[in-house]
Amino acid sequence: MTATPTRTPAARAPKLNLIGLEKTAYKGADSTLCNGCGHDSISARIINAAWEMGLKQQDVVKFSGIGCSSKTPAYFLGMSHGFNSLHGRMPSVATGALVANRTLIGIGVSGDGDTASIGIGQFKHLVRRNVPMVYVVENNGVYGLTKGQFSATADMNQTLKYAGTNPYMPLDICLEALAANATFVARSFAGDAKQLDALLKAAIAHNGLAVLDVISPCVTFNNHESSTKSYAFGKEFEIPLHELSFVPSYDPIEITEEADETEVKLHDGSSLVLKRLGNDYDPTDKYLAYRTLEEARQQQKLLTGVFYIEPKTPSFVDTLQITDTPLAQLSSAQTRPSRNALAQLMAKL
Amino acid sequence: MSVTVQEAQAKQVSQWVYNDFNLNVATANGSGSQTSNNLLIRSLYKMGIPVTGKNLFPSNIQGLPTWYNIRLSKDGFLARRERVEIMICMNGATVAEDMESVVPGGIILYDDSLPVANHRKDVQYYPMPVKTLVKAADVTYTLQRYVANMVYVGVAAFLLDIEMAEIKNALDWNFDGKPKPIQLNWSMVTAAYEWAQQTLVNDQPYRVRRMTGFNEGTVLIDGNSAGALGSVFAGFTFAAWYPITPSSSLAESMITYAAQTRREPETQKATYAIVQAEDELAAIGMVIGAGWAGARALTATSGPGISLMAEFIGFGYFTEIPAVIWDIQRMGPSTGLPTRTSQGDLLAAYFLGHGDGRHPVLLPADPTECFEMASTAFDLAERLQTPVFVLSDLDIGMNLWISKEFSYPETPLDRGKVLTAQQLDAFKEQHNGQRWGRYLDVDGDGIPYRTVPGTDHPAAAYFTRGTGHTPYATYSERASDWENNLQRLARKFETARSLVPAPILQEADGARIAILSMGSNHPAVVEARSRLLDQGIPTSYLRLRALPINGEVRTFVERYDKVFVVENNRDGQLYEILLTELPGLSTRLVSAAKCDGLPLSARWITEQITQ
């Protein structure tokens, strides 16, 4: 007698990434932001990008300043060290940490108040130094955590319930970055998951500072139709400059240059492929980037994509000519000069 | 000068004064007088004479009055002295005032082209033909102004008997053996010397002569160079700074010394990074970031800088991140007197930040202690996981001090309670089944264990935040979590009392009164005590080397009827801290505080006690 084999339906094998982890392993604590907040969508994209790239979370450090956006590093990559710093001061903290340990992958999340108001100085110097990290600005044009004041990126003549009408032109984070010699400048929309995925991956692969200005609607204080930072506006009026795809270095696919595509090789061997949509746009042309950004600003258009990329400029860590071993991991034998060295210096005095 | 002339003048001088007078040089800044003054002080030092040099300079690049005060003291008293016996006048803007400042019986050397008025009868004048000598030297116009100051070096060398060989050695040292500037300056010094020899009748009483017993085993150095060297030998790996007088030379010296000694042998790459930040906010932010990531990180600044750093220092205290902050104090409040010394940042440094919080403060008294405390500061910062201040000042930082030769740091670096991946695995077993929590006090000393980013362990990560948190570093607004955490931080500060450098006590037999002081006041206190003893008043002395104070301070104060708290600020800031920490002993404490931008003098301290 032969036993009739019984077939139990096989549980669907969980999808694992390069280092054998499920996507859920990249989650953080539960978000405490408002339901529908654009920031949570961005956290989800960061989780996805890190998982798809097979990042080891112990190699990643998360930074933020103060504000709603700056709470989010607690909500992704729970196995990474996180640093919720002071208002507008994340750039300096990240600079110190990434110089102290050059092997770390830095992901910073800031907001428009944190970056463009209180933190504009540190932001511009972070850009100027080309500190190798991803710098995401979750830009909603409003102060959420203090309940609805205008930020420096708020639209001109926009009206808010408590703050009244804003009489000033907004600061454009991408233009500010460009003027400070940024090597990677992009804008996206929290509702555009596909574009954000490609941008985040390219930003992580970039050896330098990658500025991602992501329009991220504040559902509580700034989501009405008159705002360029609302879901309705983004969904209706987002104009992508190009269609982006990221090809990781481990991917064996040979990229064949299509007539309507531009490929930008990144530091680690990966590539960003930009497929033209309508106008020709060369993201290595800085003058074009200035012009395009300024036109979009004046016309209050939500233009998204990579405005500028320059992958060859040495990063801050390269410039410093420091040891390959992270400074923080050097032994005292490596950091305390010899008895003889002191004797020689003493003899010279 | 003929032998007969020398004998004739020797008869006129009733009493020689050897190695015991005060020489003041008045010049305009930016005129190269620093080189001339360095030659004088260095050659005197190399003759074995106890000397001290105080540079009184303006907050300016060129053209404003500067004084350099060189005190010689055969007895080894190195405090600033107010009486001036020898004045060298090279600045027309201040010459009248400068000439008035000399004590009766003193001498005045002056550039004979200066508009000199009211000749005093009680001093001796030595006009120097500076212009003529410079002209004869045949140097280009641009260099004339610089070599002009070499004239007084040559004339002073003749009048005071400074060994010319030592002046030449000092010149070689100053220009690091570069023949061109050495030759240029040396020819001017010798020309002036020869002119003096041929022309002047040296019938004034002040002389120097080689001596032994004091300068052996010492170096002549400023505190900022010493602090920089100390940091380099303390294994610093990260520094960020923003230029501010009088601290800039600390960071700049680090750049020089580190480049010489801190390269990886195989690759020549740096085992450190020094970043000039965009401001003090960024400098401390970088230091906090680097300290968090496991580097030995420091910044150097002065008063206005620590005001800007306040928010980050409070953050570092609360998030428990090691950092070392050198505050080279200048006179505040506000921009104050940027080129004058002070001990006015004591309260600010001790309590910096909003909300509750206190920080260990180290108080070096001279360059040697700057060197040593550079290591101590890092060890404490990493052991206690907190920002630690080193409070130097302009007097220590920028003036040359005879200092005990630095000894090689023998103690291994204390990197504090940092868990490796292996230690993290074993943590639970070693701590009664408690899992690791970033802010969990398992040892009872208030100091938790930390991990650094990059630790290859899935449970190594934690989230650093300046908001309320639990022992496991999760967000919390619960009242008990908040209070427990702050109480633990207070406990940690109690632990600090036993870890910071102990005070140094000198107790005198039969003394009923005592002096309690700190930092750069030390030489003035030493001299004041000697004067007081001469007047039949023995005093004991406690030199505080750190805050928080420990039990030794209390028992010391308890032993005396009166303890004068001597400090260089207006409000008596150390006195105020002692009143708070030793409320029961307040009637014994007497504040003796002065703030005029100058280092304290023995005369002033003596007066405070005898009045």
Explain how this protein is built.
The complex is a heterodimer of chains A (349) and B (611). With 349 residues, chain A is of the alpha/beta class. Chain A is built from twelve helices and 15 strands. Chain A has an eight-stranded mixed β-sheet, with helices on both faces. A three-stranded antiparallel β-sheet of chain A has the order 12-14-13. A two-stranded antiparallel sheet of chain A has the order 5-6. In chain A, helix 3 (90-100) runs parallel beside helix 5 (120-129). Chain A is globular and about 75 Å long. The N and C termini of chain A lie far apart (99 Å). In chain A, 52% of the residues are buried. With 611 residues, chain B is an alpha/beta fold. In chain B, strands 10, 11, 12, 13, 14, 15, 16 and 22 form an eight-stranded mixed β-sheet that branches. Chain B has a six-stranded mixed β-sheet with strand order 3-4-2-5-6-7. In chain B, helix 6 runs antiparallel to helix 7 (179-199) and helix 17 crosses helix 20. Mean pLDDT of chain B is 95; it is low at 1-11. The interface between A and B is large, with 54 and 71 residues.
Number of strands of chain A: 15
Task: Tell me the distance between the termini of chain B.
Answer: 51 Å
First-to-last CA distance of chain A: 99 Å
Helix percent band of chain B: 25-40%
